[in-house]
Structure formats: C-alpha cells, structure tokens
C-alpha cells in the first residue's frame, strides 16, 4: 500500500468507493470483475483501519472455514475465491489479523487503493459528485459509501454519557486501571467487554434492559453468536461476571468517589471506574448524512439497488444495509449485496454483466429478499 | 426413540436407510419432503451412535453458525432448516452434543427410525433386496447405505498393528495410564490425540510420513482444519508435543519393557505405552462389501447418482462418497448429495420432485461436480 501522504487518485474517476474495509474492498472487486474502469478505494487510514483498532482480545464473531470449493464460502471472506480461514489458519481472527487478510485481498484483487485520503463531505454538480478530502477534491460519477460504524461510537443517548468510556476506545482490557466495572449494554460488545475484563482478573457487571444472553432469536444479527455463548459459558464459572437483566440504564453521574449508573426504575449501581459503554455505534454515513434519509431505527433508506433514496449515484454497502427489517450487519450477509450495487452501476455504464452469474452461483448475489422470511431453524 | 428390543419396522418397505447418523437422517429427510412412503432408518444402536462414542475432548472440526437464513447453512446441519449452532449454542459440539442435535432432527423431521436393528448382510431377490438383521429380515425396494467409518477403525496395514490402540477406542485421554505416548499418523485424529494428551499433562510424539501440520492444501478434506491449527498453536508452547515428519511407520513390536515403533528408513522410537493408532478408518460398507466395487483408494465406485456400480437400487451417502478424486468427507459436503440420491429413487417411483428446487436454491443439491475444480482460495 502507498504511504498516506502521496496522492495517486486522479481528479475525476468513475467510481469512488469510500472505505477500505471488507465492504469497500469487496464491492471494488466486483467492479473489477465487471471491468469498470477508474474505480478507486479511498481510505482515511490504512486498509482495514477499524480492525487495527479493535480491542486486542476481540475476535470476529463468525467462524472462518475454507468451505468455498463446495459453495460454502468462508463466512468472513469478502469474495467467493478467498478465505481468511485458509490464509490466516484461524477461525476467529483478531482485528489486526483480519486487516492482514484484507491487505492480501486488496493485492490479490489488484485494486486501486488510496490510503490516507479522508472524504469529509460530498457536493453534487451537474454531471458528477464532488468529494472534498484532506488532499483536495475528487470528482466521481458514482460514489459507494463503505465506511463501517466502529469509528462512530454512540452513547445511546444516555444522560451523562460523557462520563462513560466507549467499548471502541479500549485497546487492552488488562491495561484498564481498576478492578471493578459496570458495562452498559449486554449484546456482543458488552459481553465481549465482560469476558475481556474477567480474563484480566477484573470484575464486570453487565446491565441490560433485556436479557440478550438468554435470547433465542434465530437471526444472528439479533442474538448472541454461538462463539460468544461458548466464551461466556467458559468465563461465568470464574464468578467475576454478573449479568443484570431488566436494567434499563438512562443516566450516568459522577461524584468525588466514583460513578453512579441509574436505571429508569430508580435502581442504581455504584462503580469506582468509568462505566464501559457497550451502547452501540452510530452511522458510518455521518460525513454524507445530508444525502441520505433515515428510518426510525436510524438506518439509511435505500432503493432495491442499495442506492440512497435522496441522491441517485450514491450507494451504500456494509453493515448498515437493511431491507424489510432484515439487517445485513455481518460480512456474510452484506457481501451478498456487492453484486447488486455493481450491477446497477454497470448497467448505467452499459457494461456487460454476464460474469455476475458466477456470483449468483456462489451465493454472493442476493436480490430476492423474500428468502429471509423463512424460518430456517427447526432445531 | 423406541427401545432397541422392540421391532416396529414392517417386513417390506420402500426404502431402508441403514444408519441413523447425519447421512442417514439427512437423506431420509429429503425422501420425506418428496413424500416417498415407507422409508425407515435402521440403526444398530441409538441415533448418532458413533458420535456418542467419540473421545470426550473431540469436537466437530467444522464450525457451526446459524447463517441458514442468508443461504449460509450451518456447516454441521443435515438440512437447510436446522442448525446445531443455534440449537446447541456451540460452534464445535462434542460427540454426545451432536447426537442430541441428531435426535432433535429425527423428531423434528418426523422420521421413522428403528433403533437396535443391525443390518448384517444383504441378498438380492427378483424384485427387492433382502436385509438380514439381528431382528429378522427386512425386504426393501431400495437400500441407502449410510454407515459412517468410526465403527471401522483401521491400523493402516502396520505390521504388529495389534499392539497399537486405535484412536477410536479411547474415551478420555486423561484416563489413559502412562505419561508418554507415540501417535502414528498426523492428520486430524493424530493431532486431536496429541492435543488431548497434552491437555491431560502427558507427552505426545506424533509420527507421520509427511508433514500434515504444515500442509497448505486448500481442500479441508486434505489439510488440517483452522480449528485444529488453532488448538495446536495453543498447545505447542506447553512443550509436551513433538511433531516428527518424514517418519513413515511400518511396524510396531513389543518386548518386556514396552513398544518399538519402526519407520521404513530404519529409525525407531521406544515408548512404554501402546502406540496410539491415528491410522484412519476402513469402509463403513463392510457388511455389504460384496455389492460394491472399490477403487485403488478403497472407496466404493459409484454412478453419478451415487448408486453402486454393482447393484442397482443400492445407494451410498456419507463420508465415503467421492467423485473425480473429490472427497465428500465432511457433513457440509456429503449433505449436498442427499437430494441427488433422493431424486434418483423418486424418479424410479414416479414421484414429483419439484420440491428439490428448494434444495438447489439452498446449496443442498450438488449435481455439477465440475464446481469442485476451481481454485477458490486466492488468499
């Protein structure tokens, strides 16, 4: 990869893909297979930037296995011809390992990636979109927004949220000063934090309005993953994790001796250390939010081609894609929409799209969204 | 499930599926979806019999994840509408847990399973096949052989193989008397044995003619799984596992003080305890071997419909299915052939097979074997 301070991207390109994570690299690969010229991936940091910043003990939740040859593409692969399970020899890569795979993929797919270029805003002109960056302007006929949410931590609207420490800001649980922590939120991040703290010999109390650790939902986007269930089962007997359900936290306050975490029913928890906020993430679309409409859940409204309903030519790929209430928030889900976006762009450019049949045959082209409605777990 | 000593299966049935493991239950489910009448699964022990006998620390090698709804069916599921990852909340179930899932599946699919009925041999009559069992005879128009290989341990033709102890005969590594073990064979079973012994605080020396632990083959049927790589990496720093490549073992001898393990180049290893044989498994087809032809690798020769080349009406499902050198030895592979066998039988009975499109759409119907020829791991 090039050094961040050297700009190679031309002034006017066909497609600007913003973000060199799994979504951006994955969709750029499809565009390359379609022989779309002048496609550039613009990345504020390095390839896989957010993954490089994950807490050291955090792992991908979906297990990698190189089942590609029999149509069971590695769940963490961004293409049907690559497998982090095979190249990294790990089922659950950590963030930096996964960034390595993304780097290998960018090379293997021969993608144009411009690192160190941060897109700050988007303006429309008559015939193109104008991206303002930290290294001048880029004109693009199409823009595919592919920024993840890790860089947009949210405190979930808590009163006094500024007293908390967001999950995404922690690099190593063992380095946190203090022995006793409250964690607000009991989904994947909250349980990961609890396990990380427990493994470091610290005590963790997880507070959640519901009981995600008991949720039997069949959609992995709504319930804990088997990996997390398994890790939690292994950690619980140690006795330093407490799971508190029915704790709908609304506020954090601070006094001379520590922090007070308040639930809506009046109960409260004292903790000497800043509460960990496992309260989720905002949208990765913030720099271009004026060009998207958002639904009640804060998700960008999209056409059936994953194009902004507000600005033709601006597409979205990645974990914020949703349709009919179905979240595409895992790699194995959102990668199935890369080909949909690529076909839309290729169609407008008059390019041949026959190669996309290969994507369909490899379970990498999901355009019939009714499939998601079946109950697929009898047992 | 019924008790083993009570026979419910009628004298004459349409399809006898022999073996209530993942292969037998999986193919029986497809036949039920096709509304084929009088299908019975005949099982010598209980549902999932072999899995119940696995060493206690052994886990399924392929990771379970309930990705079914997005077309990424749990790798260990026997149908596209079930997921052991979801029902067991484990990525790598142990044998008894997986047997639980199989039991749930047999119930959920409302299959006819006759436990405690062991098929000992097969004879042909003019219009049907006659199965001799421990509870009388069963006449069947079609027979689907679905016995796994775990019950057929092989010493790989070692001289003095009777001095060894086969991997499949061990229930708990920590219960083995002795502190120091030679393991003959370094593929999945051998490495699993080494890790099991190491975890129990014992020393293990793995002897293999090649170097499977370094093999970078892209086919998981030929190289160690990511799960095993990961477990081995975690165990090696403990220092009690030795991996010896280029050790082509040909003989075991025994004297008053222990055992001698001899390689073809004249080197030998002394060990006080019976060497562990991780030398693989024979064929699960032994009781009907006269009705199959076998290739040089000892695999049954099959038609493109997975029918015996020697006896029309006798089909094979499970890990011994192979075509063009491709092994279907994982659940996620061999399950893709259930529908092929079911279609062949349904076709001869004149049954409607349109429901099988659902199987094709769910990556559970692999009839184009050329798919396996692609290189699907660029990185």
UniProtKB/TrEMBL annotation, chains A, B:
Q: Which domain of life is it from?
A: Bacteria
Q: What is this protein called?
A: Oxidoreductase CzcO
Single GO MF descriptor? flavin adenine dinucleotide binding
Q: Which Pfam families match?
A: Pyr_redox_3
Q: Which InterPro entries match?
A: Auxin_biosynth/cation_transpt (IPR050982), FAD/NAD-bd_sf (IPR036188)
Question: Which key words tag this protein in UniProt?
Answer: Oxidoreductase
The question of whether Oxidoreductase is a record keyword is answered with: yes
From the record, what ranges are coiled-coil? Answer: none
